[in-house]
Design brief:
Elements lengths: L2 H10 L1 H10 L3 H17 L6 H8 L4 H8 L15 H13 L7 H14 L3 H7 L4 H8 L11 H13 L9 H18 L27 H15 L1
Helix pairs in contact: 2-3, 3-5, 6-7, 7-10, 9-11, 10-11
Length: 234
C-alpha cells in the first residue's frame, strides 16, 4: 500500500486515531497512548516528532508520560529542539491550564524545561514569546513555599525566574524592566518567610487542586508496563 493511500486512511480515520492516542479517558485509550509513547521513545525526539511528544505530555496521564520519557531527564526532554514560538506558546498554555498539584510532576518538569531552554538568555526568549505578567504568574504558581529551594521543582522555577530578572538589562527597556521586577518579586515572595506567594501572585491563580485521579490502564497491562520499566532500570 502506498504512502498516499496510508495518508488517506489516516485522514479519514483521524477522529478514531485521536481518541486512541490522546483522549486517555478510559483504560483502553490509556493503553493505546502508552504503546504509542513507547514507540516515540524508541524513535527519538527530533523536529518532526517533537509535536507528538508534546501532545502526549499534554495528556497529563502518568502512565503515558512515564512511557514517553522512560529513563530520560524530564527537564531535558525537549533540550535538543531549537526554541520556537509555537513550542513556547504551548508550554505556557499548559501551565495556564492546570492548577498547582494538578500537573503530573514529570509532565510539569518537561514543560518547564522548554521555558528554561528558551529563556536561558531572557531577551532572546522574549523574541520568540514576549512574556507577560500572567506568564510569570503561571510559572510562580508552581513554587512550593513550604519545601526547600533545592526541591527539583522549586529549583527549576526559581532558576527560570532568576533568568527573567535580567530582562531588558542591557538596553534598559522599561517594559521589560517591569517584567523583570515582577519576576524578582515572585522569587522574593518565596524566599521571604514573612511573605506568602499571594503577596506577588493573585490568590485565585494559586488555588491548589487535589484528589484528581488519572485514568489507569487495565490491571494486566499495568503489571506488564511495570515489569518493562523494572527491566529498563535493571
Amino acid at each position: 500500500m502506498s504512502f498516499q493511500e496510508d495518508r488517506r486512511i489516516i485522514m479519514d480515520g483521524v477522529y478514531y486515531i485521536r481518541e486512541a492516542l490522546f483522549a486517555c479517558t478510559d483504560p483502553i485509550q490509556v493503553e493505546s497512548a502508552v504503546s504509542f509513547a513507547r514507540f516515540l521513545n524508541w524513535s527519538g525526539i527530533n523536529r518532526e516528532t517533537y509535536p507528538l511528544f508534546l501532545r502526549l505530555i499534554q495528556t497529563n496521564n502518568p502512565w503515558v508520560v512515564d512511557a514517553l520519557i522512560a529513563n530520560r531527564e524530564p527537564r531535558l526532554l525537549f533540550s535538543t529542539i531549537k526554541p520556537n514560538t509555537e513550542l513556547i506558546d504551548a508550554a505556557f498554555a499548559n501551565l495556564f491550564s492546570f492548577h498547582p498539584d494538578e500537573l503530573y510532576e514529570k509532565a510539569l518538569m518537561a514543560l518547564l524545561g522548554i521555558i528554561e531552554n528558551a529563556y536561558f538568555d531572557a531577551d532572546d526568549g522574549y523574541k520568540w514569546h514576549a512574556i507577560e505578567i500572567m506568564d510569570i504568574n503561571a510559572l510562580g504558581k508552581f513554587l512550593i513555599k513550604d519545601s526547600p529551594q533545592d526541591h527539583p521543582l522549586n529549583k527549576l522555577v526559581l532558576h527560570i525566574l532568576d533568568r527573567l530578572t535580567h530582562l531588558g538589562e542591557a538596553l534598559k527597556d522599561h517594559q521589560k524592566n517591569l517584567l523583570a521586577k515582577h519576576a524578582f518579586n515572585v522569587r522574593y515572595a518565596y524566599f521571604d518567610s514573612t511573605k506568602a506567594l499571594n503577596d506577588a501572585i493573585p490568590k485565585p491563580i494559586l488555588t491548589r487542586k487535589f484528589g484528581i485521579e488519572p485514568v489507569q490502564p487495565t490491571t494486566e497491562f499495568a503489571e506488564l508496563t511495570k515489569a518493562r520499566q523494572k527491566e529498563q532500570q535493571d
